[in-house]
Structure formats: structure tokens, C-alpha cells
Amino acid sequence: MSEKYETKAVTHGAEGVAHGAEACAAKAVRLDAADELAKSRELFALPDGVVYLDGNSLGALPRAVPGRLQDVAAREWGELLIRSWDESGWWTAPERIGDLISPIVGAAPGQIVVGDSTSVNIFKALVAAVRLAGNDRDEILVDATTFPTDGYLAESAARMTGRTLRPVRPEEVRDALGPRTAAVLLNHVDYRSGRLYDLPGLTAAVHEAGALAVWDLCHSAGALPVGLDEHSVDLAVGCTYKYLNGGPGSPAYLYVAARHQARFDSPLPGWTGHANPFGMTPEFTPADGATRGRVGTPDILSMLALETALGVWEGVGIDSVRAKSLALTDFFVECVRAYVPAGRVELVTPSAHVERGSQIALRCDDAGDVMRALIARGVVGDFRHPDVLRFGFTPLYVGFGDVERAARVLAEVL
Amino acid sequence: MSEKYETKAVTHGAEGVAHGAEACAAKAVRLDAADELAKSRELFALPDGVVYLDGNSLGALPRAVPGRLQDVAAREWGELLIRSWDESGWWTAPERIGDLISPIVGAAPGQIVVGDSTSVNIFKALVAAVRLAGNDRDEILVDATTFPTDGYLAESAARMTGRTLRPVRPEEVRDALGPRTAAVLLNHVDYRSGRLYDLPGLTAAVHEAGALAVWDLCHSAGALPVGLDEHSVDLAVGCTYKYLNGGPGSPAYLYVAARHQARFDSPLPGWTGHANPFGMTPEFTPADGATRGRVGTPDILSMLALETALGVWEGVGIDSVRAKSLALTDFFVECVRAYVPAGRVELVTPSAHVERGSQIALRCDDAGDVMRALIARGVVGDFRHPDVLRFGFTPLYVGFGDVERAARVLAEVL
User: Fold this and answer.
1) What is the pLDDT of residues B338-352, one digit of tens each?
2) In angstroms, what CA-CA distances link B156 with A68, B124, B150?
3) In which residues is pyridoxal 5'-phosphate bound (chains A, B) (predicted)?
4) Which residue among A1, B36, B130, B350 has its CA within the 20 to 30 Å range from the CA of A108?
């Protein structure tokens, strides 16, 4: 991390809150002035007076998106009509946009297709992983603490492939691995706590057991380096509406490592994943490459909005995003310590950088009421049942002044 | 059918083509003047000088859509951000829009949810149908002549439920039904020939054999009455980008008859189909009603474009659409007979109204070249391998003058 983001914790000592507040406010100004990603904020349309710390649920609107949507609807659809499938590049959008996501998650081109929801892609990836693992491996491990849709779809994948699903806590995965293990579905960052798991180490352990690693990147992609290729991940899925700012419910993506593509056997072999989709042959012959992960007709309006949204990444490296993300979350914790009376909130997110995603979760009594009060004062995070305040920090549009204000308003509310 | 659409076939006799052409042109004027759906055309943005007969592939743009998209992106997403899931009604869009489709396909409210692609919905519907049929029925029948994605997904559904898939021609379905039959997947209108199948009769036959009928409505919904409830269809799916004009790749829908909902057991049990989606419980408890057919986060931009597109149906009954559709296709055949030299094209679509969807398919040598020439002259249909010219007639924006011009230009090209 670069010097400019250094955020040594303020000791909440005898000088009292006033001194800490003054120090935080001054520091925010300094950090913002030195922030090389600050200019990215201009690429987003954010409402005046709002500190938006819910980009880990729905990313903010990139300014270029409404204009592109207008053009896609009025000209590409309205005027060119059916010709746009070729002339406007609609047909190849899933692969083209996949290749825009690739550098953000550390994948070489040709391994990601965009389309369907994360849940549907989890089903594809997990069933395909089980089939790649072969018939003598009859167990699927799934993170028991994960976002629940992963567990629901894993249960269905197990039921429909005749495997047993075994939910385990992430820290138990290494012990649970064995010759029965076919595949392991893990979340890179826990949606509630913001804890970052050890993708390189866990993937290596899964491979050592002869199984396949399937990663859900919903809460990490766009916020921190993933290194899919570098760490030999087998399959991965993720949504695009959090740190990738694709818009509400924008299409998800599926990563199939190049080495597995020829044997990727989808449970949803739709016509657009066919080697010759317009041949209309009765037999399904899968396309080469990641294309065989496609299913139905791509959802063009949402997909092209996403393509435009990904334009904010031009010239931005994921390492600088990660550096700022850690600085933002460090600084938020520092400001909370300075402003909020001791004992009123409890830090849920790990302090160690190596275990932290791009959010801070605080346990707090009456968390639901507290979040409503925060939102009424223009600080938007979200509440997770039963007692968690979640604050997400998107480095491309959140500044250090936002962070200071959020902590200050939180202290006022409490 | 009302008197005004009467379109008695012109006998292509000794008077020759010139007389027939004069008669066709005059008749088109009369028919357009009497067309009570003519005003609907104003609700669509169609390029000048184009006769658009490809609405059975991609429906035209309803004029209200770009404005709605602008509002959804700039205000609902950009300003209200995460609040829009409640305040802008995003969360309930799949059911709300399903209820807009219901009257078009003859379903009472509460039985249709919008989301995912047709292919994904076929998988859900067919697996659920097999599970509803019980373990002692081990065979799935699928229309062997259908749009191929139906067959591909049916094959996967069979493989993953341990059933056998048996492709049959639609006319063989009755003989193929038996005590082994779990479910039958049929297309209401064949995508290539435009043939309309006997949904009431086939559904009754399937039920008599104790099996479930799953219908694919892609090429019928919005063009003719379907009567899902009236004919006791069990499950149905359809796309929304053809006669429902939802836009390129707009979300598909799933119909689950009310009597089956409590036992509908989805192979894709995603979190948004959960009874308490924000409870984040590790066990999947399906929601009541059609909601349990939902999977992942709804794709809001595309979904709300579709909602606006469905506004063109306000005050329009499907029976009047069907009457005009038959008049248009009758008149097209009449004009083709009058203009095109005998023997140059062959009618693939059945002449009998009871067997005709809303398209006319003509077999023709060099069909690919002919279609390219037609499109260059502003008459847009499409080509289906190897030798079929397809012309789709969307009654809400195609007029009789368009039909006459299309046939005239076809004759010129030939």
C-alpha cells in the first residue's frame, strides 16, 4: 500500500472525542487530496448530499449508462431492429463483456461469459464441476456460512447429480477434504461479515485432495485482486451489480478455466451455447470455449448497460483499487473509534488486511433502527438481520471525507 | 372473425397479375380503413419506409420504452439507489409483470412470474413436471420438430431426473402417451412452419394418460388466444421479445397452474424464490404461489422495459388481435398468389386457420439470397435454413398496406 494511504489507528485516549474528531477531519482532507482514484468519482452520478456506502449491494450509476441505454433502445432496437444482432454486436456481447471483466478478476480472455443470474451460474458451475470430478467422488462441500442462495443451489446440484452435500465452515474445509470430495463451493468474501477468505490457499488444498474449486466472487470482484488464473481456480461465478456497477439485477458471469472448457458439461445446454446455434440441429453440440456456458438469448438492454458501466475501469488497476479500499476501511474503523463511545458497536470484520474485503460490518443493538436513522441523515449503508450494520466502500466513488462524515453521523445517531 | 377482415382468396386466373395487383392494392386500402387496431401502430417507433415482418423474432420498439428506461436508470437507480428495491417496486416486478402477461395468455393472476431466459424456464418447468408426475413415470416426450433449445433442455432434464427422453412428432404424441409418460413438452406454434398445434386437445390427451403438459408459448403468446386456465395447462413458458415486444433478450416467463404451486419443486431454488428471502436461512423454504419459480435477483432494466412495453395492450383484447392476425396472413397469401408467378414459392404454413399461427413461411429456392434482397428493399422478414422465408405478422403494428407491399416486393425480387 502506498504511503499516502497510511492510516495509523488513533488511540482513543484522554484527549477525548473532540481531539480525535479534529484529527479525523483534517486527515480526511489530506487523504482525499492525495487520492489518485479521486477523479473516478466524476464518472458516477451520485445524489447530492449522500454518502453512499451500499455499493456492495447495488453499485452507483456510471454517468455514461443512461445515454447508452437510450441509444440501444431508440437506435439499435428501434431503428436497426433484428439487424442489430449482428450489426450492433448483440450476439457476441456475452463473450465481449466477459473479456472486459477478465482483467478485473485476473483471467486471460476467453474464459468468462456474461449472462443469467449468479444463482443460475452457481448451478451450472457446480454441476459441471461434479461431472469433471468423475463418478467416484460423491461429496460436495459448501460454505455453511455463505450467502444462502449458494447453499440452496448446491443442494439442488447435489440432489440432481446423486451427490451428498456437506455444509462446512470455511475454516473446516481443509479437514473435510478427502477422496470423496468432488467439488467445493466457497465465497471469496462473506456477505455479512466482510471477511475475506484465502482463495489461493484453499484452492491449493482443494486441488491437493483431487477436487475442483468453485468460487463465488460476488463480494470481491471489483474490490480486490482475485487472481483466477494465477491461483488455478477451476470455475467461478459472480454478480456485476455490486463493485462492477452494472445496475440492478444486471447479468452475472461464469468463469470456466481454459483447461476445463473442452470437458465443461453444462446442465443448462441452451441453444446459444451450441457450436452452430442457427443450424437448429436436434443434437446439442457444445460450442468451444466459454461460450458453452451460455444458455438462452442474451438480455441485451441490461448487458449493454453493464458494458458501458465497465468503462469506468479504463486505466484503473485492481491493485490501486485494493490499496484505496483498505485505506478507506482502515480509516472508517479509525474514525468510528474516535467518534463512537466505546462499547456501543463491535467490529465484526477482521482487522487484518489479509482477511478483509471492502466492507465494514458493525454489530450494534437496534441495528435496524440505527440504519434507518443513518439513511435519513444521508448515510446509506444497509442492515443485515439480526444486528449488523454493513458499510461497503467502493474505491472508485467513495472518498475519505465520505468516510469521516459517515462515522461522525453514526456517532450522532448512537 | 368480423366482416371487415373478410379476405376471400383471389383466383389467379386468366385476368393475369395486373388485375390481381390492382385488386390487392384497393383491398388493402379498404381493410386498413376498417381496421380497429390500426391506432395501436402509433404506439410503436418503426423506421420510415420499412415493412417489418420479423416481429416473430424481435418485436418492434414501443415508443414509451426509451423514456421509461431513462427514468429507471437516471432516477430510480441513480438517485434512489438501493431504496428503489422497495420504493420503485423493483422487488415485486416479476410477479407484477407476470400479472400483465396473464390476460394475454388466458391465466388468472398469481400464476406467472417473469425472469430468466426461456431455456432456463423450460428446465425449471420440465423438471418440476417430472417431479409432480411421481417416480413411477419414467418417460418425457418432447416435440422432435420443435425449436431445438427445447429438446436440448429436455434432454438435460431427463438425464438429471433419471428419465428417458423420447422425441416424437406432434402428430404422434397421442399414440406415444402411456402409463410411463411423466410429462410432455410441446410448442404451441412451430417456429419454422408457423403451424399451430391443438393445445386444448393435446393437453386433454396428456391428462388422460395421467401426465403433465408443458407448453412453450414463444410463438403464440401475444398473437392468438392461448387459454392456459381454460384448457387446464399444467406449466408453460414463453419469451417476451416476439409478439410481446419486450426488447432484445427480454426476460421470459413461467406459468405454474395454481393447483400445482404448492408442490412445485424447482431445480433452481434461488434465494428470491424463498418464503423469507431476507431471513437468509440455511434451509430453502419455497415461497407460496408462482414466486417459488423465481431464482436470482431480477434483471430490472430489462424487466421494467418489458413492463412499459406491455402497456400497448391496454384496452386490446387477444381475440381482436387473432382476428386481425388471420386476416393479415390470409391477405398475404392472397397477394402472393396474385403477384408471384405460380410455382416459384410453396406455402409451408397450413391454410386452415385452426392450424395457423401468426406467420407465413414460404419455401423458395435461394431463400437466403431472396431474403437479403427483400431486406435491401425495406421488407424485413427472416430466413430459416435451408430454404424457408419467414414473415411474421404482428397485428398491433402491421397493416394491410404493409402486407400488399411485402408481396409486391417479393414478386419483384423473384
Assistant:
1) 999 989 999 999 999
2) 37, 11, 10
3) 118-119, 147-150, 216, 219, 241, 271, 297
4) A1
C-alpha cell at A29: 482532507
Measured between beta carbons, the chain A residues lying within 8 angstroms of B143 are: none
* Core vs surface per residue B113-140: b (16+ CB within 10 A) or e: bbbbbbbbbbbbbbbbbbbbbeeebebb
Q: Is A398 helix (H, G, I), strand (E, B) or coil?
A: coil
Q: Do domains A3-63+316-413 and A92-297 have the same CATH topology?
A: no
Q: How far is B234 from chain A (nearest CA, A)?
A: 22
Residue type, B226: V
Contact criterion met (CB below 8 Å) for A184 and A142 = yes
Domain A92-297 has CATH 3.40.640.10: yes
Those residues whose C-beta lies under 8 Å from the C-beta of residue B413, and which sit 6 or more positions away, are B370, B373, B374, B377
Rounded to 5°, the CA angle A54-A55-A59 comes to 130
**Tens digit of each residue's pLDDT (9 = 90 or more) over A100-152:** 999 999 999 999 999 999 999 999 999 999 999 999 999 999 998 877 889 99
DSSP B206-255: HHHTT-EEEEE-TTTTTTS---TTTTT--EEEE-SSSTT---TT---EEE
Binding site residue list of B: 118-119, 147-150, 216, 219, 241, 271, 297
Task: Report the topology of domain A3-63+316-413.
Answer: Aspartate Aminotransferase, domain 1 (3.90.1150)
Question: Each residue of A218-251: pLDDT tens digit?
Answer: 999 999 999 999 999 999 999 999 999 999 999 9
Question: CA of A54 to nearest chain B CA: how many angstroms apart?
Answer: 7
**DSSP-derived 3-state class of residue A112:** strand
**Residue B206: pLDDT over 50:** yes
Comparing CA positions, the residue from B358, B373, B324, B406 lying closest to residue B36 is: B324
pLDDT value of residue A16: 55
Domain ranges of chain A: 3-63+316-413, 92-297
B394 phi, psi to nearest 5 deg: -95, 110
> How far does CA B6 lie from the centroid of its chain?
25
Domain B3-63+317-413: CATH superfamily, name plus number: Aspartate Aminotransferase, domain 1 (3.90.1150.10)
CA dihedral A368, A390, A312, A247 (to 10 degrees): -40
Instruction: Show the cell assigned to A165.
Output: 452435500
**3-state SS assignment for residue A372:** helix
Interface confidence, given as ipTM, is 0.95
The residue written with cell numbers 452520478 in the block is: A45
Residue with grid cell 447453499, as numbered in its chain: A151
Q: Which of B189, B75, B118 is nearest to A299 (CA)?
A: B118
A73:B61 CB<8 A? yes
